[in-house]
Design a protein that fits this description.
Elements (H helix, E strand, L loop, with lengths): L1 E5 L6 H12 L3 E3 H9 L3 H8 L1 H17 L3 E4 L8 H10 L1 E6 L2 H8 L13 H19 L2 E4 L5 H11 L1
Helix pairs in contact: 1-8, 2-4, 3-4, 4-5, 5-7, 6-7
Bound molecules: shikimate-3-phosphate.
Length: about 160
């Protein structure tokens, strides 16, 4: 079985994905982590050095490689859906779940996070609102199910997803 989680940074893709993998006895794969292994440095450093387009190219290659042998629970980077090729690969080869969160909830979770390059700006909440507006339709287009992350705990989110599989 192959499941992919999409959603904005801070939506809980890694936390939910890890627990979901354990629950389903499937490997958990974090695409950001696979990318970091390939480049040998952090995504943040790579972004700064090479720029966003180079990162997106790499991300597309990694998603295509994973989609060629779909297996496990995949946590994708928040921007993976920006490219049509990725949306198609994910939708065609994985059961895709959109973990939807409000920008306000995301802001509360990410306020002290310095790892996410896209949020190193003067107004991170405004940035999250923009990202949400721009990407929400793309996450919906990619996903087979939408799960709202507002209230449920991680464990409850895993239960909700398992019921939908
Ligand atoms: C990005 C999200 C990050 C990472 C990169 C770009 C984005 O992943 O892929 O910094 O464009 O939203 P997370 O969603 O795991 O933070």
């Amino acid at each position: 079985m192959a499941v992919a989680l999409v959603g904005l940074p801070g939506a809980g893709k890694s936390a939910v994905g890890r627990r979901l993998g354990a629950r389903l006895d499937l490997p958990f794969i974090d695409t950001d982590h696979v990318i970091e292994q390939r480049i040998g440095c952090s995504i943040r450093d790579y972004f700064e050095r090479e720029g966003e387009i180079a990162f997106r190219d790499l991300e597309q290659t990694v998603i295509a490689d994973l989609a060629a042998q779909p297996h496990g629970v995949l946590a994708t980077g928040g921007g993976a859906v920006l490219r049509e090729a990725n949306r198609k690969q994910l939708r065609d080869h994985f059961h895709v779940i959109y973990l939807r969160s409000s920008p306000e909830d995301l802001f509360r979770r990410l306020r002290h996070d310095v790892k996410r390059p896209l949020l190193q700006v003067a107004d991170p909440l405004g940035r999250l609102r923009e990202l949400h507006d721009a990407r929400d339709p793309l996450y919906r287009e990619t996903a087979h199910e939408v799960v709202d992350t507002g209230r449920p705990s991680i464990a409850m989110l895993v239960d909700i997803i398992v019921m939908q599989l």
